[in-house]
Description:
Elements: H1 7-23, E1 30-35, E2 38-44, H2 47-50, H3 57-69, E3 77-83, H4 87-96, E4 100-105, H5 112-115, E5 124-126, H6 131-148
Parallel strand pairs: 3-4, 4-5
Antiparallel strand pairs: 1-2, 1-3
Helix pairs in contact: 1-6
Amino acid sequence: xxxxxxxxxxxxKALQEAEMAFDxxxxxxxxxxxxxxxxxxxxxxxxxxxxxxxxxxxMQAITAASNFLGGKYLQNCTLYVTLEPCQMCxxxxxxxQISNIVFAAADDQRGCGVMGTKLHPKxxxxxxxxxxxxxxxxxxxxxxxxNLN
Length: 149
């Protein structure tokens, strides 16, 4: 029997958020946070709209999920995000004690892996889920941005 609510299913939801960011002229990164196969937070980058460097998709999702749960810890939750978290977001995810992080595309320049950022010891991280789709969207964004300038 095929599992309907798998990593691909939830990453597609994160990609929908990334597409919303793209449509707003934001770097197209989207995120959802899931507990017990239920999406409790949806977010995308809002750094341009809010004029706030901390308004990354992951930060927005952490806040929404914490509000939903009524607490600051995201144990038993999984973050699905279309781009590997940066050092800032990984730090916030560390403090949230999130159980799982699943990302699509790696960020070879600013990702938490290349930056050597530590995650919470109980947090599991997995990359590459719908990597091509997420990577293609980001590349399209920056190609269009360069052509406008």
